[in-house]
Amino acid sequence: MDIAFSAEDLAFREDVRTFFAEQFSPELQTRMRSNDFKAAIVDWQKKLYDRGWIAPNWPVEFGGTGWTATQKYIYETERSEAGIPPTIPFGLSMVGPVIYQFGNQEQKDYFLPRVLKSEDWWCQGYSEPGAGSDLAALKTKAERDGDDFIINGAKIWTTYAQYADWIFVLVRTSNEGKKQEGITFLLCEMKSEGIKVNPIISIDNEHSLNEVEFNNVRVPVKNVVGEINAGWTVAKALLAHERTSIADVAQSKRTIRQIKEAAAKEINGGKALLDDPSFQGRIADIEIELMALEFTELRTLAAMSAGGFPGPESSLLKIKGTELQQATQALRMEVAAHYQGVLPTDLDPEQLGHDFGSEARRSFMYGRASTIYGGSNEVQKNIISKFVLGLE
Fold this sequence. Notes:
It is a single chain. The protein is α+β, with helices and mostly antiparallel strands. The protein folds into three domains: 95 residues, Butyryl-Coa Dehydrogenase, subunit A, domain 1 (Orthogonal Bundle), CATH 1.10.540; 111 residues, Butyryl-CoA Dehydrogenase, subunit A, domain 2 (Beta Barrel); 152 residues, Up-down Bundle (Butyryl-CoA Dehydrogenase, subunit A, domain 3), CATH 1.20.140. The strands form three sheets. It has a four-stranded antiparallel beta sheet with strand order 2-3-7-6, with no helix packed on it. The protein has a three-stranded mixed beta sheet with strand order 1-4-5. Helix 5 packs antiparallel against helix 6 and helix 5 packs antiparallel against helix 7.
């Protein structure tokens, strides 16, 4: 694959940089870190929609950009370098691709434009208290009642459910055959009677996770994506899209750059930490692996640009991407040293040396989950052994 920047690519990069500089204001960034988080994210995503950049990985016929793999690489690199968060994935990277791949025409016509315009905020109903990485063990039940399903059960670790308008949920509609064969993929409005959202405060003291209870919740049968009892195929396709985005190479590269900048200012034994050979070696090891992962990600993007869908290589991206995220988070913690204990309200870069101490601590703690969510890395290794190596 040739990713050398052509004159057109360089012009595109300048266009991206100009757009980010003009449209992503400090005021918008501040709002994203406040109680105005959802509205700020939606405002930003609407700017991307108006520019035609909201769904780079979607096919053009459904609203995608038609960018090459190189242009996608440029866009993600510039986004990360500018400190701009990625779009919320549940609509754009998960349920949207599933609907245009498996949905009927009515579902495509209604849901896809609303996803692109950020008119609906989605969340994911997969994991359960007793079924996480073993997703096929889910017990949330949906029983047919005329033109509706009635759902009872609970989902857990549901990110941003407190903001969501819709949830895509896996439910058990049959107990016959293999446990994977009785699962159905449903779209459910969060305002439906019988849904209760219970907050979960994570170790970083943030509220992004939730438990969602379903108590006799009615969902129209027309909201089934794919076929009844055939939701396992839909679920796996969605997870492949999710795992591809979890790698987030661009963010890890930005973290490494921040670590280098801080280590250059940190004096240890009369010299900068960045000049320490052992520290340099650890940085180099991560950068080498990031470069290799980046090319794997680009190959996947190139295949998707040609009309394909992510396959078992998404498991490789998930494994290595999350391992490198944790490696960079651990290294950042070491550079932050005792500044990890500083509260955000106490930050004073001139006095404290590292203004990222609190953020380093919180990202490190939350990052321990990255090798678990989206399907644990142990499960991803099983997928690779089966579908890549041909082992059973």
